[in-house]
């Protein structure tokens, strides 16, 4: 990998960053690469001191920061420069420090594109309207018929609907109950909510039968198989779980951080060990 003189710290910024899997995933990989880098978590609650976070991210010791819920929109706004994916989505999950500037990337979009491929989706149902849902919407743009959006926060749903319009995507907002009823007819169900983190949670869409050609994309990863994924398997429906998404978005970071290509294999191996140990 590229040698580093000062910068040696990767961080994760989020409301529950210290509970996330990323430090446990990245630190063994960085150690095996002999990078001298470390990965740490910064818990920043909603409404926290984000101006202070930005100042800390410009410290010479910082390499980059992953950004997770609920700060992906803030990250897009605070970036001094950004990729087209960030500009289109309004969400950023990776800020790379370049001197006194932060450059925004969205590896969530890369991961969704890799895991869903270029299969046309006749009707996508987005459960949740935050940064993860934005990534899916951008990844699908130009390759989707209709998108139905629901979120318990009407403002978030309206913002995502506006984004769909800017992308030329035929979209509509529906109520949570309407979404449960629609699920049986769509070709893609996306769980972009925390539903499933608790082992007692029911499937995000309610668990009714899905269309034979449907795909479930569940952003949640946990020490258990989420009810959404378990139900999809019962129905014989293809599912993509949060662990797969975590892997692909991490792999997409490798070239952006200037890491050796060996990091890709190490990330996959480490993630498999972590999952097996839980």
CATH class of the largest domain: Alpha Beta
In the CATH hierarchy, the architecture of the largest domain is: 3-Layer(aba) Sandwich
CATH topology of the largest domain: Rossmann fold
Secondary structure tally, helices:
11
Detail the topology: elements first, then pairings.
Elements: E1 9-14, H1 22-33, E2 38-43, H2 50-57, E3 62-67, H3 72-78, E4 81-82, H4 84-89, E5 94-98, E6 101-105, H5 107-116, E7 121-127, H6 131-140, E8 144-150, H7 154-166, E9 171-173, H8 176-182, E10 188-191, E11 215-218, H9 227-234, E12 238-240, H10 242-256, H11 262-277
Helix pairs in contact: 1-11, 5-6, 5-10, 10-11
Protein model, in words:
With 278 residues, this protein is an alpha/beta fold. The chain folds into two domains: 9-105 and 244-277, Leucine Dehydrogenase, chain A, domain 1 (Rossmann fold), CATH 3.40.50.10860; 110-240, 3-Layer(aba) Sandwich (Rossmann fold). The protein is built from eleven helices and twelve strands. The strands form two sheets. The chain has a six-stranded mixed sheet, sandwiched between helices. It has a six-stranded parallel sheet with strand order 9-8-7-10-11-12, sandwiched between helices.
Concise description?
It is built from eleven helices and twelve strands.
């Amino acid at each position: 990998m590229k040698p580093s003189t000062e910068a040696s710290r990767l961080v994760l910024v989020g409301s529950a960053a210290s509970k996330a899997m990323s430090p446990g995933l990245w630190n063994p990989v960085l150690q095996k690469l002999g990078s001298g880098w470390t990965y740490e978590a910064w818990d920043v609650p909603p409404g926290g001191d984000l101006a202070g976070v930005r100042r800390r991210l410009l410290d010479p010791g910082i390499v980059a920061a992953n950004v997770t819920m609920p700060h992906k929109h803030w990250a897009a706004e605070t970036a001094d420069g950004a990729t087209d994916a960030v500009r289109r989505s309004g969400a950023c999950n990776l800020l790379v420090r370049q001197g006194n500037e932060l450059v925004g990337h969205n590896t969530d979009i890369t991961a969704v594109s890799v895991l869903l491929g270029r299969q046309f989706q006749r009707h996508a149902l987005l459960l949740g309207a935050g940064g993860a849902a934005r990534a899916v919407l951008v990844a699908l743009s130009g390759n989707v018929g209709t998108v139905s959006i629901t979120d318990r926060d009407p403002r978030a749903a309206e913002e995502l609907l506006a984004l769909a319009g800017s992308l030329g995507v035929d979209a509509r907002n529906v109520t949570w109950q309407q979404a449960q009823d629609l699920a049986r007819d769509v070709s893609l169900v996306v769980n972009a909510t925390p539903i499933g983190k608790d082992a007692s949670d029911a499937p995000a869409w309610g668990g009714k039968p899905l269309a034979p050609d449907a795909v479930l994309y569940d952003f949640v990863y946990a020490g258990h198989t989420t009810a959404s994924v378990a139900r999809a398997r019962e129905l014989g429906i293809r599912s993509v779980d949060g662990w797969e998404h975590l892997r692909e978005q991490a792999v997409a970071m490798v070239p952006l951080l200037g890491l050796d290509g060996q990091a890709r294999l190490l990330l996959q191996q480490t993630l498999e060990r972590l999952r097996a140990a839980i």
